[in-house]
Amino acid sequence: MDAILLQILNGLDKGSAYALIALGLTLIFGTLGVVNFAHGALFMIGAFCAVTLQRILNISTVTIDETKKDFLGRPLEVKTPVVESWFGPDLGGAIIDWSVPLAILLAIPVMLLIGFIMERGLIKHFYKRPHADQILVTFGLAIVLQEIIKAWYGANPIPTPAPDVFAGSLDIGALLGLDAVLAYPYWRLIYFAFSALIIGLVFAFLQFTTFGMVVRAGMADRETVGLLGIDIDRRFTIMFGIAAAVAGLAGVMYAPINSPNYHMGMDFLVLSFVVVVVGGMGSMPGAVLAGFLLGILESFASMNEIKYFLPGIDQIIIYLVAIAILLTRPRGLMGRKGVMED
Questions:
Q1: d(CA 147, CA 153)
Q2: Could you report the per-residue pLDDT of 247-263, keeping only the tens digit for each?
Q3: What is the per-residue DSSP string for 89-100?
Q4: Which residues cross the membrane (predicted)?
Q5: What pTM was computed for the model?
């Protein structure tokens, strides 16, 4: 039971990242009809927002401490973060320690701006072009963004720790009354809760706000909404920015789980597109459902007991499930008729 519960938790952890990225992909495809292969790069940029803020907060001033000497008898240089000089060692140290959650405040405007620039500067020119053209140009953009990150930050992963208070693990076994010790990292649980919150906010925004209702109407019948005098294009541009922000926030909070590197966007991109296709192109509930479902299946397939009988199954399980689902349900789990069937 404890092994099964552990794999479910691991699956929810992976599924959270898949679901958030796939949700942003589906938002873009559902509103603009664009297959955005640069979406994984937005996830990567979000992670590097956390890296950037951490570096900014660790900018230090150097002073000479005459009371301390090195082994040659020379005064030691003391580096003090500027934040600690401004706010004191306690508050300044806490700000540095909480750099990853605080990076959310940086990532939101940055990702919104990048989303607006991408949509207005490039994507809008490919609305009526074939999906193959959209894939090629956005994939090329993803490579460009990836190489920019590589040139600026280097090729090696950059450790980005979570706040110290979340550095340990929670004994879920004791919490559930199990005899076995089942420790699970606090930050992974927080990431799952954060993902559920973001997903809930996106659905609530689309379901219960006037803006969201107009967007959903535009997704169903863009021409009719335009005839009512509503600037649906402007609203769709805003939705592209929101989708970029969702991917960026997913990357920010994922930074302590997997140290940011320049190719992390590509690592998630293909899997996230599989999630979107399995869930059903254009279906946001389907994308979320498929994200968590495939995350859990991948987690169970990575168990040593499974890999002993089926070596390498953890590398292909998602694709096998995708094939099986699409053979029986060509539109995916919750796909809509007429989407990408022309």
A1: 10
A2: 999 999 999 998 999 88
A3: HHHHHHHHHTHH
A4: 15-35, 42-64, 95-114, 135-153, 165-184, 191-215, 235-256, 268-296, 308-327
A5: 0.86
Half-sphere exposure of 137 (CA within 13 A, CB side): 17
pLDDT at 66: 67
Residue with tokens 């949700």: 23
- Residue 180: per-residue pLDDT: 66
Domain 2-328 has CATH 1.10.3470: yes
| Structure-token match 């937005």, residue found | 42
Instruction: Confirm if 199 and 243 have CB atoms less than 8 A apart.
Output: no
H helices within the chain, ranges in order? 2-32, 39-57, 82-97, 99-121, 131-153, 172-175, 186-208, 210-220, 222-227, 232-254, 264-279, 284-301, 304-309, 313-328
User: Which position has the token pair 């998602």?
Assistant: 318
Which amino acid does the sequence have at 222? R
Query: What is the pLDDT at residue 70?
Result: 66
| DSSP code of residue 263 | T
- pLDDT digits over 136-186, tens only? 888 899 999 999 999 999 889 999 999 988 888 887 767 766 666 677 888
Q: Is residue 75 a contact partner of residue 66, using CB atoms and an 8 Å limit? A: yes
CA distance 171 to 309: 30
Residue pair 245/112 in contact (Cβ under 8 Å)? The answer is yes
**Is the pLDDT reported for residue 335 higher than 80?**
no
Hey, CA dihedral for 198, 199, 202, 208, is it positive or negative? Answer: negative
Nearest to 122 by CA among 247, 226, 36, 193: 36
Q: List Cα–Cα distances, 76 to 66, 69, 72, 83, in angstroms.
A: 7, 5, 10, 21
User: What span, in angstroms and rounded, lies between the C-alpha atoms of 145 and 180?
Assistant: 46
Q: Which tokens in the block code for residue 255?
A: 């930074």
Radius of gyration of the chain (CA): 23
